[in-house]
Write a structure and sequence with these properties.
Length: about 400
């Protein structure tokens, strides 16, 4: 199962997961007392841990309280947290929720919304040998046991636009704020998990504060759309279809939990592969499904069309910010972007020059090896880039 997650989150081949509802038997860290004598740890028959000092005095140690959010970055739990995630955020959980929702009284039923990423739609289209629009329409029909099916390209546009504005703000502040640049992309949850838990306060100021497309969609669905439907956020069950298992980690972050209504912006994340499992489970072939009109978050949008933009893959952030910054900061229109591979194909850079002077220097850093090299450059103060698109997986 570990192969489903990004390399940054797979440090070993262990299979020793700790469920969020369980307590870890590892004692919490105890402050060392002065003195050279080392205390011994004694384990009782009931599994209790005691610290025994030199005088024979025993002190019971507390058990560590570990939640899913806590254990994602330690080398033991990080490799196996997928077992927890698969049980809590999976196609099986979605089916369970739909069944319970159908059986509930009308006043207690939730509005179920599914948001499909363009990457997942493209993967399904390639697998089923269909066009993107045809795939989207047939997927809408298949998922019609839910109430609405949206396309997350809409929220990706929001994320890209805000990232552009944030970069320009940071560029203007670089003289007074030494950590304004380089701005590091924040859309990859695997990278963010590694950065926060491994490098903490050093790296966080460099990371973009813009939400990922998934979480922007979560805010829109539980905020704007909920208001349009005259429902509180907790009366909507929001599911996203994503290409990456790490998105399950992102949705479970406490940052995206509404304390007032006790609900998450994204309640459940299923992957493209899990959609295929749903199809197999129902005995359905997607090419044989009748198409249905697409749902839209805004009534003014054309329901029959899919919104799209340049650079919609991993390179979307770098390309959009680069073009916008070149025009906004230097009045230079960039038509095509030339990438320069460095030590390997997963580390490339783009440079904007005028009269031999470097104006902007951007880079792509994909995979754990390149992320480590990037962080070391930052720590040595030798990172020449203004923006780096960071993704945990090799090839982005």
């Amino acid at each position: 199962m570990a192969a489903w997650f990004s390399g940054v989150l797979q440090l070993t081949e262990l299979d020793d997961f700790i469920a969020p509802s369980q307590e870890c038997i590892k004692p919490v860290k105890v402050d060392k007392k002065p003195g050279k004598a080392a205390a011994k740890i004694k384990i009782e028959a009931d599994g209790s841990y005691f610290q025994v000092d030199q005088d024979g005095e025993a002190q019971k140690l507390e058990k560590a309280k570990i939640t899913l959010n806590d254990c994602l970055a330690c080398s033991g739990c990080i490799t196996s947290a997928e077992s927890v995630l698969i049980s809590q955020q999976s196609h099986g959980e979605l089916c369970k929720v739909l069944a319970l929702n159908k059986a509930a009284a009308a006043s207690e039923q939730k509005l179920v919304v599914v948001s499909v990423s363009p990457q997942s739609r493209a993967s399904l289209a390639a697998r089923c040998r269909m066009g993107l629009l045809e795939t989207a329409e047939k997927l809408t029909t298949f998922l019609k046991s839910v109430h609405y099916v949206f396309d997350t390209t809409f929220s990706r546009n929001f994320s890209l636009l805000e990232s552009q504005r944030e970069f320009v703000r940071r560029f203007h502040k670089q003289a007074e704020d030494k950590k304004a640049l380089p701005m590091l992309a924040s859309a990859c949850p695997g990278w963010i998990c590694y950065a926060e838990k491994t490098h903490g306060s050093f790296i966080i100021p460099y990371i973009s504060t813009t939400k990922s497309p998934q979480q922007v969609m979560g805010s829109l669905v539980k905020g704007y759309f909920a208001e349009q439907q005259h429902l509180p956020p907790d009366r909507i069950y929001h599911v996203t279809v994503m290409p990456c298992y790490d998105k399950k980690l992102e949705a479970s972050r406490p940052d995206f939990f509404n304390q007032e209504y006790q609900t998450r912006d994204v309640d459940c994340v299923i992957t493209t592969g899990e959609v295929l499992k749903l199809l197999e489970q129902e005995g359905v072939s997607l090419p044989d499904v009748d198409p249905a009109p697409l749902d839209t978050l805004l009534g003014s949008a054309a329901a029959e069309e899919l919104s799209s933009h340049r650079g919609g893959g991993s390179g979307g952030y770098l390309e959009h910010i680069y073009r916008h910054a070149a025009q906004e900061l230097f009045g230079i229109h960039v038509d095509s972007i030339q990438y320069k591979p460095l030590k390997n194909k997963d580390f490339q850079e783009v440079t904007l020059e005028r009269d031999g002077v470097v104006l902007l220097q951007f880079a792509q850093a994909y995979g754990f090896r390149n992320i480590q090299n990037l962080v070391q450059k930052l720590k040595r103060g030798k990172c020449p880039y203004h923006y780096v698109e960071v993704m945990a997986c090799p090839s982005g």
